[in-house]
Amino acid sequence: QGTGIPYGAAEGETLIREGNWFRLTGMNRVVPAIDWRVGAEWHNRFRFGDEPEIDLSAKIGDRLVQVRIEKMMAIAWLWSYVWKARL
Asked: What is the per-residue pLDDT across 44-77, written as a single tens digit (0 to 9) for each?
């Protein structure tokens, strides 16, 4: 819901429907960011790699989330972490 992911599977990908849910596996594309509309009633979940699943709907409710991965130096990451903690 609101992620902008493809509606169909490309070569090497599999689109799976599990009840009311869809899952796209085997996706190997360069995507600079995903804007994700999260709704409290939608039970949106996010998992990256082998990390535990995060229930975004329970954590943040109705919001727009931008999922982005970027390389950065440790000092830049520390600065952004401290800056966000102050807000």
From this structure: 998 888 889 999 999 999 999 998 888 889 999 8
Sign of the CA dihedral with 60 first, then 56, 66, and 79 last: positive
Segments in the chain forming alpha helices (H)? 56-60, 74-86
Neighbours of 9 (CB within 10 A): 14
Identify the burial level of 34 via C-beta atoms within 10 angstroms of its C-beta, where 0-12 means exposed, 13-18 middle and 19 or more buried.
Answer: middle
- CA-nearest of 35, 43, 82, 80 to 59 is 43
Which ranges of 27-73 would DSSP assign to H, the alpha helix? Answer: 56-60
Three-point CA angle 60, 77, 65, nearest 5° = 25
Please list, residue by residue across 40-75, b when 16 or more beta carbons sit within 10 angstroms of its beta carbon and e when fewer do. eeeebeeeeeeeeeeebbeeeeeeebeeeeeeeeee
pTM: 0.51
